[in-house]
Amino acid sequence: MSIVKQSFISNFVGRDTYKSIKTYSIPIVIIGTCVLLFLYIITHYVHSIIISYLLNLTNGFSLLFIAYIVALITVLDIEVEMEENEAMPWQKPIKEPKPFRYKLTIIWAIVMAIMGVAALFVTNKFREQYAFECETFLVDNKSGIYHLDWDFIECETADSADKLEPMKGYKINKSYSFCKECQDWLCDAEDEKGMAHLRPD
């Protein structure tokens, strides 16, 4: 009989694979956390397309962020010491009931999985909001309507406006409404990449 460290995740992926993943996960989490903190802090002071591009690469449902979440879950996973019977090759392995402390690792794995999925949705919403704040719109201050600032879009509402002022998204508050014609155009182009951040909440 020997004492080994186990958790639900380590048993699920295999101990050798788990150890290998955990070795690479620590530097990934350290570097990833530093990069994300830098980006989140700078978004409060700068509205740049470059920062928006970096957020798209490192947040939401991007492969980099998913890899970061997997690495973070692996690092935060807690293994507990358990007794393991060492069966001889000709003996049938004896399955014993798992102790309560092992069952806690199952609960902790579920909690981390839920938090990881939530992080994907929250950061995806954040990067879309920041992309909106970096976008330039044409604002009709008289009617309180803002339009897409794209030359290839024909909008009769924008054409009939007395004056349109170019304005970044972060300057547009809740008192303004998105142009219905522009919104309909976005709905028709919903399959186009990079359009989601232009839709109003």
Describe the structure.
The structure is a single chain. The chain is of the alpha+beta class and 201 residues long. The chain contains 7 helices and 6 strands; from the N terminus they run βααααβαββαββα. The chain folds into 2 domains: 2-133, no CATH class; 135-193, no CATH class. The strands form 2 sheets. A 4-stranded mixed β-sheet has the order 5-3-4-6. A hairpin with a 4-residue loop joins β3 and β4 (145-148). α2 packs across α4, α3 packs antiparallel against α5 and α4 packs antiparallel against α5 (100-134). The chain is elongated and about 85 Å long. The chain starts with a strand and ends in a 13-residue tail after the last helix.
